[in-house]
């Protein structure tokens, strides 16, 4: 038999062992290829159509970062899996050595088996990616809201990058790991299963240290949020390191200590408990590192996916947008000044009506106001300029568009919330916490007014501060006549279907873009140098009134957020899928890698007269601990980390976290049911049939 034929036969005969390894590797190749295909797509390389430069930059960075993360996860997965296979096949490897095979040839077999699986998984993953390229592009274009669509192309560069990266990865892991096989002796390979294992050691101080590390890690996060920000980086680093150390100590010491404590109870000698606890001590110790790794990586994955799902939601994407579908703004010298913006607003109303919708329209003037804030010791902090709207104008707009009315008192100015963060903050604060004193510049002098922040969201522009003041107060602002800060007129348009009617939005945006392009073209055109100063001033004033246009679009902003958040959501979900597949495969390897050893143990129990139901109960309890203890620890870690994110963002995003935890729990339960079923079938065959090995 040739060497290559031997390698193929070994892989085929170990299909159960290598099956999940192959599927997990294929899935990681498929996801990597998906990111590579999008990275080199002609439309994506030039930037996502209809998006800002920031979104396109985020897309490029996100694709590259995702590919790097997949490679890092794959390295950990392949490294752990390789040693799991070696352990599972130590008896076979020992037989090869007993028959006279040289260690060099043994390494060649292991190297060839791993590379064979690598070649097939690369071919299968890339093949599936190419086969479903069009489907992937359709899903991505809908997720990112790319109106023109992503055209199909043959991803030659994506295929080449995927093959080179994963081929190099398999070569690297196979070479490094097979070189270490020579350190294993013949007796270790052939008799490792029969070697008695010493009772795992624990120490009460290490058990206490585990809980202290976890408490210190959680406490560092709490202090980082509520305490001094000067040590922010050190606190975050301490939180991560202490939590990881505490997690490893928890599984290596606390869990084993718990089993050893249960062994001292009088109930230990009651039938099944004796078997379950005695076996549990050794399983807890041998699986401790795997459990700790799964718990730590699962914590990061759960938090990452929860955050990306929250960011990718339409709710989060439109939380900080303007309050109406479109806002046109311009500087004016008088309230009834007729400009290009006024004419454009009427054209937009006609387009909305032609689309079968009912437009809502209103215009309002805002006035500049100079003011100073006072510090806690009545010392001047700074001088600022803000824009104010008359209370009557605001309430007219509020009535038209369905906002909450606001009525400032005689000596009061109201600041509405412009973002969801401000709205939530104002809702939680007492009235006294939301008030401060301002010194406002009036024509009659400086006057102290009370500024009250209200939890009513109203936003018509990207201003730093925007106030609502009594009508008679606005008329007294001294800076209102200063040419450097003119009045600003806002024209608000809205229609109920602004989010769903893509056609009308595109017509409106095309109209606005054409007018802006026209103004830019005319403003760059040469001007007659023979014009007098007055004629030059009249020329630019006419150009401004006839062509200048500035606007904000809720749909356009939502579309850009949808693209960036959709991209984040896609990355989070795909990387989460890779993590879950790797986790499931590692647990499968660990469970079925010792199947023959466990089969001999259960064969002994069968010969002692233990009923199948009792053996199944013992196995089920062990599997529950194996699947759900790391999940429980990961859930606690991720909940604490997510709490910190919620506190820092001032947004209630917990329902997204609970949805992800429920999905993760559901997938783990499904995996548990499948693995328990298959594991018990194989155990029963080995326990009740001597020929089952």
List the keywords.
693 residues; alpha+beta; 9 strands; elongated
Describe what is shown at a glance.
This protein is of the alpha+beta class. Helices cover 66% and strands 11% of the residues. Residues 68-181 form the ABC3 transporter permease C-terminal domain.
Describe this structure in words.
This protein has 693 residues and is α+β, with helices and mostly antiparallel strands. The chain has 24 helices and nine strands. It has helices spanning 3-13, 15-39, 42-45, 53-88, 90-98, 103-131, 133-144, 156-179, 186-191, 204-226, 232-263, 272-286, 288-312, 314-317, 340-354, 391-401, 420-428, 471-474, 502-523, 533-547, 554-593, 595-607, 612-649, 654-688; strands spanning 326-332, 360-374, 380-390, 412-417, 435-442, 445-457, 466-469, 487-494, 551-553. Strands 1, 2, 3, 4, 5, 6, 7, 8 and 9 form a nine-stranded mixed β-sheet that branches. Strand 5 and strand 6 (445-457) form a beta hairpin. It is elongated and about 105 Å long. It is a multi-pass membrane protein. Keywords: Cell membrane, Membrane, Transmembrane, Transmembrane helix, Transport.
